[in-house]
Amino acid sequence: MTSEPKTLAIVGAGAKAVAIAAKAAELRAMGVDAPDVIAVERSGVAANWQSGGGWTDGNHRLGTGPEKDVGFPYRSSLVPRRNGELDERMTRHSWQAYLIATGQFAEWIDRGRPAPTHRRWSQYLRWVADDIGMPVVQGEVERISVSTDDGAERWSLHTAETTVHADGVVITGPGQAERSVLPGNPRVMSIAQFWHHAASHERISAERVAVIGGGETAASMLNELFRHRVSTITVISPSVTLFTRGESFFENTLFSDPTGWTSLTLSERRDALARTDRGVFSARVQDALLADDRIRHLRGRVAHAVARDGRIRLTLSTNTAGEAVETVHGFDLVIDGSGADSLWFLPLFDQDALDVLELGMGGPLSGELLQESIGYDLAVTGVHPKLFLPGLSGLTQGPGFPNLSCLGMLSDRVLGSDLTAAQPVASFARSRLDEETR
After folding, report:
1. H/E run at residue 232
2. How far, in Å, CA of 46 to CA of 24, rounded?
3. pLDDT digits (tens, 9 = 90+) for 51-107
4. Annotated pathway, please (predicted)?
5. Which residues contact 434 (CB under 8 A, 6 or more apart)?
6. 304 near 200, Cβ under 8 Å?
7. pTM of the full predicted structure?
8. Structural domains in the chain?
9. HEC profile for 258-315?
């Protein structure tokens, strides 16, 4: 007798959600048990790859090769003796399959296999989602709580219109793009405001422009800013210079095949992440920077921002010879491209849900503890119901999981996880809290 399928809810309907839903659909088509996958999305499938999502104008090129699609690297490990069949089924949802189905394959080959625009990538993801009939609940998750259903603890995702109950939750996406160092000031742009200008073809005209951030989010904004009427562009980041992302075979292998990742020390892993993923620009963007003499770099973290005398004055803090040094710099326009808050989702959890996390991990919530608690299945170890945080899994599981570099392996890890908790940890958490408050 087959048990009722579990439900896996995914916050966001981007590439990770589509990859997981596609593999789950193919597993069911093979007669293999797989959870029902439901995405909860405030806009639409692949919204963050379109101009309305706030993270791009849709015209910039994908930084990762499109062949690293929803099935890559096509080394499934979920169905013994049938993994080859599963991989073959997943090729039906590949980037090449999309191009063939839409009559674009020959042109793409003849043009030298160019990286697609973000808009084209979003069209590919929507094509896959439509093909598998991915269920999407329209609405923004406003609160996440824990509920009890027939004695089993489940997550409850609350939107303004509905509530989705799930045995496991996957958090995806970078959060909101509207934050900035000085909200409400017209001389300070958030990521979303910048891309809104770009998408509406509004030219930015300013003498001295500062871009905060040294990662790929800031890099894509710089790539766009070259086209605007600005005299100088100062990139502000904590690193000593603007580093180029390692893109040789050896670095790329870390993303596609993290087999040896866990054998590295934490120090070695952090060093590898710093060299290949975090706070680095792609080689393509660095080439553009070298060719433009308007670009400057300032080392430091923005400690304070204030509007004064028609300018934005940024106080930068740097550590020089073991001492904190602060300097003040004035700009006509500041663009905050410091990227996403990796813990953007925590305010969604109500107090009971936060208690489940803290007691499951054995300590107060922090970004560092969460990162170090991510297990093989990309879920927080010791926490039930399962909470999958692929965006924080780079340190413990490999640098490819937080981004687009191994979506097929990511779906394997998540779908291979046991969503059934041996012990209802949430109930245990509440009893512990009751004892502590007596």
Report:
1. strand 229-237
2. 19
3. 888 899 999 888 888 999 999 999 999 999 999 999 999 999 999 999 999 999 999
4. Siderophore biosynthesis; mycobactin biosynthesis
5. none
6. no
7. 0.89
8. 7-175+341-437 (3.50.50.60), 188-245+282-336 (3.50.50.60)
9. CCCHHHCCHHHHHHHHHHHCCCEECHHHHHHHHCCCCEEEEECEEEEEEEECCEEEEE
